[in-house]
Design goal:
By secondary structure, the protein is an alpha+beta fold. Helices cover 15% and strands 44% of the residues. Strands 6-5-4-3-2-1-13-12-11-10-9-8-7 form a 13-stranded antiparallel beta sheet, covered by helices on one side. A hairpin with a 4-residue loop joins strand 9 and strand 10.
Length: 253
Amino acid sequence: MSRVPTALPALLAIVGMLSCAAPARADPAGDKILKATDEAMTRAKDQIFEYEITTQEPGKAKTKLTMRVAIKGKSWRLIDFLAPGDIKGMRYLILSFSQMWVYLPQYQKVRRVASHARSQSFMGTALSQDDASLSTYGEFYSGKLLSETKTHWKVEGTKRPGKDAPYAKVELTIAKDTQQATELLWFNDKGAKLKTETRWDYECQGNICGPKYMKMVDHMRGGMWTEFNRLGWKVNTGIPDSEFTPRALQRAK
């Protein structure tokens, strides 16, 4: 009787383990939840928000600014800074994760935001310019359901290959009633937690919901934090597409 080579059983065992593990890497449940969250966040045709924003950097006095944000579709955003006086009139236009422009009133010029500047602080806050432009998750992150309660899902998002996502991984706690995140933990590729984002006091206009308060904590900058207090919110106002162009960015509001 022929003998099986001694290395073959080990090889067959490894092949068997890989064939069993491959389907486990795919997680339709996690991806489905992220897709539902993306849909819930972008359900409105357009929205207009006004925020008072407070930033606390360790060892420094708190700073405040006020801005209006107009959102259309899944990714278009127009940001107008209303106060304080030294930034009043500055405007940002975001058309996609990699397409951002800024209007500087003191120079009366529109500049495109360079890709290398996207990781820098957004107007001195705990948010980066990448944070300000990331509007959906499923396109950039592959979801995995970690746990579930009666009221929430916890989903891990891992950066999809080839996608220019700002962080290697995110852990989202998502409320089942609104299908939106109440907490997001952002990690680098070494597993270090970089930022914690919380959102609370969700309110709804029909089936369109949003948080009244948001807070971002930057753990790599000594716990620096920025809190958003929503002062006003309008839904489906009919903002024309023509408002979301670099040429229109110079027009005063």
